[in-house]
Amino acid sequence: MRVAAIDCGTNSIRLLIADVSGGSLTDVARRMEIVRLGEGVDSTGRLAPEAIERTRQALLGYAAEIAELGVDRVRMCATSASRDASNAEDFRSMVRSVLGVDPEVITGEEEARLSFTGAVHGLNAEPPYLVVDIGGGSTEFVVGFEKVDHAVSVDIGCVRMTERHLRGDPPSPAEVAAAEQDITRAVDGALRKVSGHGTMTLIGLAGSVTTVAALALHLPKYDSGRIHHARIAYDDVATVTADLLGATVADRRDLAVMHPGRADVIAAGALILRIIMQRAGKASVIASEHDILDGIAFSLA
């Protein structure tokens, strides 16, 4: 069966077209666009018309590729920004008109389950796992062995924390301290709820984690093959985080592995990862390129 999975988050929209057979996925196409759907949602409570239009333009390209590649089933999941917005129906109507299916505005718990499924499939590491999916508006914490035992979603993400706290370029020490306090409070609460301290392996998902991994590995360019399942030490994450917080957006954008649309929010994403590792007592994190997209694709089979 050929399936198409679309994940629309606060910062990016991504497409996976894959053939599913015998419990495994074979990639046909993966795409990612930075559309910043959740721009300003934390302060206004609404999706901006220009953000909806950026997302529409990306979806038009995805819809054309889905038609061209003969996909059998399509599922689109929309996450933090479209859960929070008072005008979410405008977004849903746009998706129906472009894609021909309704977007599923999933709960944080469902988002966590799908992310866990994608992350642990084919992973050779010691369970139980703590899977953290650092998005633009929220971060999911999931604990389990082969399936989810505990999950929680909290409203800390790279876009939300940047807009709320890290407004300077680079952010001031006072801004960083305020972000650290906000993130630490949320992380401690999440770890208590999911019993995250008792896990053996920390797995990090999404663009903030994979970009930090690429920087820690000193890659000359972004290389998903080298990043996937790379184990990154806490000290390296801390170094990368400090460097990003001390850099301007222009300096971050010049880094060889940096997606230009991620440069203004990557420092917040790195800070979230560092604090999770610190508060959970984890000496390393395994970066995974497989995440909610893969979970959505498996769900279609």
UniProtKB/TrEMBL annotation:
SUPFAM superfamilies: Actin-like ATPase domain. GO terms for molecular function: pyrophosphatase activity. Pfam families: Ppx-GppA (PF02541). InterPro entries: ATPase_NBD, GppA/Ppx_hydrolase, Ppx_GppA_N. Coiled coil: none annotated. Residues 16-299 form the Ppx/GppA phosphatase N-terminal domain. Signal peptide: none annotated. PANTHER family: EXOPOLYPHOSPHATASE, EXOPOLYPHOSPHATASE 2. This is Ppx/GppA phosphatase. It comes from Pseudosporangium ferrugineum.
